[in-house]
Write a structure and sequence with these properties.
With 44 residues, the protein is α+β, with helices and mostly antiparallel strands. Helices cover 23% and strands 27% of the residues. It is built from one helix and three strands; from the N terminus they run βββα. It has one helix at residues 25-34; strands at 3-7, 10-14, 21-22. The chain has a three-stranded antiparallel beta sheet. The longest helix is centred in the last third of the chain and has 10 residues, at 25-34. The termini are far apart. Residues 13-40 form the C2H2-type domain.
Length: 44
């Protein structure tokens, strides 16, 4: 399930598996459906 968080005056949506942040809830949900649960291999 995607978690909403407030940062820098904006709402961000965080993947609970890897912690990656998205500015669009749909993008976060789609990512989470395909997320392997590992940390992303690139810097956030």
């Amino acid at each position: 399930m995607v978690e909403a968080t407030e940062r820098d005056g904006m709402t961000w949506y965080q993947c609970e598996s890897c912690g990656l942040l998205f500015d669009d809830e749909g993008d976060a949900s789609q990512h989470e459906d395909n997320c392997a649960g590992d940390d992303p291999s690139y810097l956030q």
